[in-house]
Amino acid sequence: xxxxxxxxxxxxxxxxxxxxxxxxxxxxxxxxxxxxxxxxxxxxxxxxxxxxxxxxxxxxxxxxxxxxxxxxxxxxxxxxxxxxxxxxxxxxxxxxxxxxxxxxxxxxxxx
Length: 111
Description:
The chain is mostly beta strands.
């Protein structure tokens, strides 16, 4: 079981990016998947996730700006990030089932 994250890059404040996380088909029979991020010298934190019941949860810092979504047919889930701020700069990781991690993709928000 593997996850492959992509879509990071350099963007100006106020800009948008969409991260993708592609995984094996067995993962997508479950709801438990999400996005985390880790900024320099900070702990990894939850950004957005699907819960086991299928609902979504978001960190307060990203509510209204980020949206998690999924396409089971493509075995991929996404993080649409709008109105990006410099404090969103971090390595973003996708996760499934609490134990499977993607390799991380760097998002840098800077002018």
